[in-house]
Amino acid sequence: QVQLVESGGGLVQPGGSLRLSCAASGSIFSPNFMGWYRQDPGKQRDLVATITSGGSTNYADSVKGRFTISGDNAKNTVYLQMNSLKPEDTAVYYCNAGRSTVPPYNVWGQGTQVTVSS
After folding, report:
1. Strand pairing report for 18-25 and 3-7
2. Cis amide linkage into residue 104, ω under 30° from 0
3. How far apart are CA 80 and CA 34, in angstroms?
4. Which residues of the chain have pLDDT under 70?
């Protein structure tokens, strides 16, 4: 059973930076896509950024130019470097990982809080 372990959230001032990490373990079948989503209380979970094992990336318009997603296939780990953080980036950030090929799976991390405030 695949498990995701997230780290790197916290409190940062506007304009600051944080780096989130998410490591997948528990399966001999590595994920072929990983990503980050975020959610405010009472709202839907929204895409932040995704990356495939081939290195293709996708970003929400609101984070383009400020956030960078990267991955280490050997470690089944994905990173999200967040720069120029804004108060509206405050949310719980969830890691997602999955496979679109056999055997398929799609799992979520427990979430990590990111708070941008002065």
Report:
1. antiparallel
2. no
3. 11
4. none
